[in-house]
Design a protein that fits this description.
Number of helices: 12
Order of helices and strands: EEEHEHEHEEEHEEHHEEHEHEHEHHHEE
Structural class: alpha+beta
CATH architecture of one domain: 3-Layer(aba) Sandwich
Shape: globular
């Protein structure tokens, strides 16, 4: 018997990404800084039903992701998102967590549920408040011992992989050394991310996947009213606010954060936000004459060494190609999470992908990386870009802290055979 491949690859037959939507992503401690991730999740869940015309009563299961516990009712986040979106209380809801790959993982779990004939339609939500990450103490329930009072910044501490004693940024620096990436090259990659995101804002492309956020109440029969409350100075939040002109000379002046090429300007932005999508079977779509965003062809997750976690998209994407028989040149668009500029540039170089096909509308350096929402954003963006460009295949992918990679292959239904 041949050795088992370390990659877990799922092939999907007649399973469809119906549509997706997200909030604008807001800078850390900004517009959405005090909003519960549950309420951001409810917002996008309600919007995806309004946009698609799909009834929440048709949902067979809810797959919701949120990596950090940033509200006291976080245990019931998937249920509350579902209930306040109008999904029947009989419908089960699951919390999904695969760190930066959570959004793609949730999409894949919905597709797996359809493959196993358990459901016809899945609601997928990823929501993350980076601003509300707590200052935490894990050892004080038994008292405060002399010299052992320990409160730490959960957001900062979580960026260190204690198995190898390296931060996520250190892993990016390791790839910069392995691939001999200069500071100038990494800053150029970041510059391109900002410029592409600004162009996608200017031409309205990004607006097509965004629902404006305003102060509003979420009422549902039988439950207490929830809602979103913004600052009185803000009537409506309509677009990502991290993309900004970032010329190379400005990027070059920023100090390294991890002792190498990575700076605050060429690393993913810390933002708050949420995204939602619907995944359905072909039978469900045809019975309701739904025009889908894209066909989910295959998904993959694989492990890599923790100290080399940033390269995770490479083996995941290669496993997808091997499973489907496609060549790298047949993939028209790649949307790969820009955890760090050096990390993402190393992935691009290792795969041999032309830069024009890689993050064509900017990435997390410019737009931001709200952990659980990112994978849904990547997948919806690449699906929309395939339709806009009239191209056929796209891949969304992310590296994952702890040493994993995840990838999803999507086909444009307007060009499929």
């Amino acid at each position: 018997m041949p050795p088992r491949s370390p990659a877990i690859v799922s092939s999907y037959d007649d399973i469809w990404l119906i549509d997706g939507v997200r909030t604008p992503f807001a800078d850390y401690n900004g517009v959405l800084g005090r909003v519960s991730p549950i309420d951001m999740g409810i917002k996008v869940a309600r919007e995806i039903f309004a946009r698609s015309g799909v009834s929440p009563e048709d949902v067979g299961a809810v797959f919701a992701g949120s990596v950090a516990q940033t509200c006291f009712d976080a245990y019931v986040l998937p249920r509350h998102v579902a209930l306040y979106a109008g999904v029947p209380h009989e419908t089960p809801a699951l919390l999904v967590q695969r760190v930066c790959g959570t959004g793609i993982e949730a999409l894949m779990q919905a597709a797996d549920g359809i493959t196993l004939d358990k459901i016809e339609l899945g609601l997928i939500v990823g929501t993350e408040s980076m601003s509300r990450n707590p200052i935490a103490a894990y050892t004080h329930r038994g008292g405060f011992l002399l010299g052992q009072v320990e409160f730490k910044d959960y957001l900062y501490e979580a960026l260190t992989d204690t198995a190898v004693g390296l931060t996520m940024g250190d892993c990016g620096e390791s790839l910069a050394r392995d691939y001999k990436l200069s500071r100038e090259e990494v800053d150029q990659f970041a510059f391109d991310s900002f410029e592409r995101a600004l162009a996608a804002q200017a031409d309205g492309f990004l607006a097509g996947e965004i629902t404006p956020v305003r102060t509003e109440a979420f009422e549902q029969d039988g439950y207490k009213t929830r809602g979103i409350k913004l600052s009185r100075k803000i009537k409506e939040f309509t677009e990502d606010n991290h993309p900004r002109p970032s010329p190379l000379d400005a990027l070059s002046k920023l100090r390294p954060v991890f002792g190498g090429v990575q700076t605050a300007g060429n690393s993913s932005a810390i933002v708050d936000g949420a995204a939602a999508a619907l995944v359905g079977s072909g039978d469900y779509l045809r019975s309701r004459n739904i025009e889908p965003l894209g066909r989910m062809v295959a998904g993959c997750v694989v492990g890599v060494p923790p100290d080399n976690m940033g390269i995770g998209p490479v083996p995941a994407i290669r496993a997808l190609l091997e499973q489907t028989g496609l060549a790298i040149d047949e993939i028209d668009r790649f949307d790969v999470n820009e955890a760090f500029g050096a990390q993402c540039l190393a992935v691009e170089r290792e795969l041999g992908v032309d830069h024009a096909r890689f993050n064509a509308n900017g990435g997390a350096i410019a737009i931001g990386h709200p952990l659980a929402a990112t994978g849904i954003r990547l997948s919806v963006t690449v699906g929309r870009e395939l339709k806009r460009s009239g191209t056929r295949y796209g891949i969304s992918s992310a590296c994952i802290g702890g040493g994993q990679g995840i990838a999803l292959l999507i086909e444009n239904p307007e060009t499929g055979a």
